[in-house]
Amino acid sequence: MIRGIDVEPVSAWLSAHIDGAEGPFQFDLIAGGRSNLTFLVTDAAGRLFVLRRPPMGHVLATAHDMAREFRIIDAVGRGSNVPVAAALGLCTDPLVNGAPFYVMSYVAGVVLDSPLKVDQLAPELRVPASEHLIDVLADLHDVDIDAVGLGDLAKREGYILRQLKRWSTQWENSKTRELPAIDEVGRRLHERIPIQQSVAIAHGDYRFGNCLTDVSTGRVAAVLDWELCTLGDPLADVGYLGVYWTDPGQTSRRHNDPSGGDAGFATYASLLERYAARTGRDLSDIDYYVAFSSWRLAVIGEGVYNRYLHGAMGDDGAHDLDAFKEGTEILAVAALDALNRLH
Hints:
Blueprint: H1 7-17, E1 26-31, E2 37-42, E3 48-53, H2 63-79, E4 87-91, H3 94-97, E5 101-105, H4 126-141, H5 159-174, H6 180-191, E6 200-202, E7 211-214, E8 219-223, E9 230-232, H7 235-244, H8 268-279, H9 286-309, H10 321-341
Antiparallel strand pairs: 1-2, 2-3, 3-5, 4-5, 6-9, 7-8
């Protein structure tokens, strides 16, 4: 028995619904934890597929989350030049595996999610990789949402206001202590919400760590982890990237990003200039979006910290308690710094 996979019925489903798939199948966990579980599936002929399902014990293990994610990558893959894995099949019958799941094509590449991965990418490819990362984001934001069939994915307007309400409520429900910086940032964000320039597919978690990079070319081979994707203000994604990005010569701010230090990636300012040139969007208020994204991440981190404190996450990762607590505080200060840079 493989945790998260009921091998016999899942194998039968794969053989019946995925073109070219031949059992028996081998299932290997690629990524798991607080997010959806991802398995590498190898069939009898050595062909590779990828299976995604909700986390174990997921209280909302309905068809909705998986079907929504499948719908997004299918639409983006068919209707744009944004690199994504091909959507191959969706199972919404919980009798097959206890929870819905979907299958997509396997894409080779490296997830550059730490400074330790930098050596896998040649130094001369690091600036081109940075530029392609922002180019892909610009391409995603220019997808015609109605033409690809995602026009009804979510509300189009008022994205930041909705997000502020959502995460303010989340903070009140999950905070473990008083952090005046969180309250101040929330208040100031509410006071000067920028006018939403356009509506786009907003990935919600866009960074090197959620992409597969072809390290032989320095190009993004596939964008991953679409579970937070919605319709909204595209500049939220650009600001979010700025939370993770560290300029050359500076100490990396995020342990799960390769930028900063002497790695040799591009500067954030150069990425902003490139994005603005490609999209025509005004980025003069980008620090607002950096502040918003830092604040949102701080609230999310506090929620994880709260759940660990109350035992809801078990012992897995509990040794990182101090890191989660400090991470919320660091992000709150970063959000204040970004707001203070605004004119």
